[in-house]
Design brief:
This is Helix-turn-helix transcriptional regulator. It holds the Pfam family HTH_31. InterPro entries: Cro/C1-type_HTH (IPR001387), Lambda_DNA-bd_dom_sf (IPR010982), MLTR_LBD (IPR041413). It comes from Streptosporangium jomthongense. It is built from twelve helices and five strands. The protein is an alpha+beta fold. The chain has two domains: 92 residues, 434 Repressor (Amino-terminal Domain) (Orthogonal Bundle); 179 residues, 2-Layer Sandwich (Beta-Lactamase), CATH 3.30.450.180. A five-stranded antiparallel beta sheet has the order 2-1-5-4-3. Helix 4 runs antiparallel to helix 5.
Length: 289
């Protein structure tokens, strides 16, 4: 399946799954006397709410190569009660959202690289739009994984979470965290449909992780700018972190991910991890010196 056919099929499945998750009661629609054989709204109801013909909705859901206008997409987004992230995903799939494309780059600007390390003792790492890990400080490595010991091509936060055995039990609320990570990946994938490397990542994860296949099929879409993650560190035990994601203005394709303790016990755990990282640095410095 070529790229255009894949996107057309994805648009069809996405619209169908968003329709099926809704019920007439969600939209205060009048109940008809007809029984519902399948979950969600009927195509006729979506068509009426979106201001398009039923035939048009059918052709979209059958992946028949239509390219809806921004006005039609807006109507569909309202009819299907899409979130802001889902609406952006819909527009991105069709190529209708005006986005300034920044050429993908693995080069880390020196000021940003310094910032990653200056944020110590807060665990911090820099990702690109593919979720490749471009830079990290010693606290993040001590908390999650020694990224320097991982082959460069595997140094991707999602690949590590789904494939690397060292992180399988790292998230105490794994189902939610993995689902949110995939929702974020799906938004990035739609915004960069011309990025072959990102498409290859999705394909590789589908081949290597049944968990990824199951969660990817849900078609959740959500950009995660902040949140909370309960963790299980192999040496200091359970802790919970709040994370914040920042985009450098001059490098909007990069994401600066910063972890902070959610409570006093978690702060004590992070302090212990920071001391461990500093002791390791001093030992290495003495050995090299």
């Amino acid at each position: 399946m070529n790229g255009n056919a894949y996107v057309t099929n994805e648009l069809a499945v996405f619209l169908r799954t968003r329709r099926e998750r809704l019920a007439p009661d969600d939209l205060a629609l009048p109940r008809s006397g007809r029984s519902r054989r399948t979950p969600g709204l009927r195509r006729e109801e979506v068509a009426e709410l979106a201001g398009v013909s039923v035939d048009y909705v059918i052709r979209l859901e059958q992946g028949r190569g239509l390219r809806p206008s921004p006005e039609v997409l807006d109507g569909l987004a309202r009819a299907l009660r899409l979130s802001d992230d889902e609406r952006a995903y819909l527009f991105d799939l069709v190529g209708q959202r005006a986005v300034t494309r920044v050429p993908p780059s693995r080069q880390v600007p020196p000021p940003v690289a310094r910032l990653v390390h200056d944020l110590s003792p807060l665990p911090c790492m820099l990702l690109d739009h593919r979720f490749d890990i471009l830079a990290w400080n010693r606290e993040m490595a001590a908390l999650m994984l020694d990224f320097g010991a991982v082959p460069a091509r595997q140094r991707n936060s999602l690949w590590l979470c789904f494939v690397h055995p060292g992180l399988h039990d790292f998230y105490r609320d794994r189902e939610r965290v993995m689902r949110e990570g995939i929702a974020d990946l799906r938004a990035a994938w739609a915004a960069h449909t011309d990025d072959a490397a990102l498409g290859d990542l999705v394909t590789e994860l589908q081949e290597q992780s049944e968990e990824f296949v199951r969660l990817w099929a849900l078609r959740d879409v959500k950009v995660n700018g902040r949140g909370r993650k309960p963790l299980m560190h192999p040496r200091v035990g359970p802790l919970t972190v709040d994370f914040e994601v920042l985009n450098p203005l001059q490098d909007p394709g990069h994401r600066l991910v910063i972890y902070r303790a959610s409570d006093a016990a978690s702060q004590a755990a992070l302090d212990a991890i920071a001391r461990e990282a500093e002791d390791g640095r001093r030992t290495l410095h003495r050995a090299v010196g």
